[in-house]
Write a structure and sequence with these properties.
Length: about 280
């Protein structure tokens, strides 16, 4: 048997379309005009950026020591809590393509003298899902839509200070004082008698207001482990669908969220001198 290889070359192939089969020239010309539009779709310009020169400037630090006010770490902790939610999509979806998540903290408050940390925020989710435009038993064509939702959360946790201790709270003070006054008495009293008392015609007070440093938080990292389940998946009543393809509008999800936080407070710190 011969191992000779035969190669066939197609000079021109026309698509099987009634309109194109009857007027090949017009179809070819329309393709050329369409390709010209595609060529004009994107325009890119670029240029080379020159490098700028620089010179070093001498730094003159304080080497004799100083007392500075800087943020001091009070505690570092990881908070874990569970969150369950139900999301209703605005239209029927076939499949979730991607879910991007970002944790946003709106409140992180340390209630001093109780050592309880209150945390409030939300998880912002951007959900990409596929929809149906047309379908048959062999396939589905559609579009990719997105839906952005905010899922709120709120919790409190006790804090153990594994760093510096927070500064003690100084309470405001308010003290009243009055002046001595000598007054004449009515005629019912002897002429030599006098009224010795405080002055009721005035109000005197000394008040002191202390502005304590409020501890604040920094979000170091967040971790989300989630399970999303599509509820009430049903077949479409309009048109045919391939096997196992169903629509849903409700997503039931469960999340385990871990937040690593730092609690800080501005305090005065003495920095010693630096030996030359």
């Amino acid at each position: 048997m011969s191992n000779k290889q035969v190669t066939y070359r197609a000079n021109r192939i026309y698509p099987y379309d009634n309109h194109c089969r009857n007027s090949v020239v017009s179809c070819n010309s329309s393709k050329k005009s369409g390709s010209s539009k595609l060529n004009n779709c994107v325009n890119v310009e670029s240029r080379v950026i020159d490098t700028c020169n620089n010179i070093q400037v001498q730094i003159n630090p304080i080497t004799t020591g100083a007392i500075v006010k800087i943020p001091v770490v009070l505690a570092k902790l990881t908070v874990q809590f569970n969150l369950a939610s139900i999301i209703d999509l605005p239209e029927p979806a076939l499949e979730i393509k991607d879910i991007k998540k970002k944790v946003k903290i709106t409140q992180c408050l340390l209630l001093q003298d109780t050592n309880v940390l209150f945390i409030k925020g939300f998880v912002r989710k951007n959900i990409d899902y596929s929809t149906k435009v047309c379908s048959n038993k062999e396939g589905i064509c559609g579009e990719i839509h997105h839906c952005t939702v905010d899922i709120p959360f709120e919790c409190s946790t006790p804090v153990t200070f594994n760093g510096n201790q927070p500064l003690p709270i100084i309470n405001n003070t308010s003290n009243e004082f009055e002046y001595f006054r000598v007054e004449e008495l009515p005629n019912d009293f002897a002429e030599k008698d006098k009224l010795l008392s405080g002055d009721f015609s005035e109000f005197n007070q000394t008040s002191t207001e202390f502005f304590n440093e409020l501890p604040f938080c920094e979000l170091i990292c967040s971790k989300i482990v989630e399970f999303d389940e599509f509820s009430n998946r049903t077949y479409s009543s309009k048109g045919d669908l391939p096997f196992e393809e169903k629509f849903f509008t409700k997503i039931e999800e469960k999340m385990v969220i871990s937040l690593t936080l730092k609690i800080l407070q501005k305090q005065q710190v003495a920095i010693g001198p630096v030996n030359s």
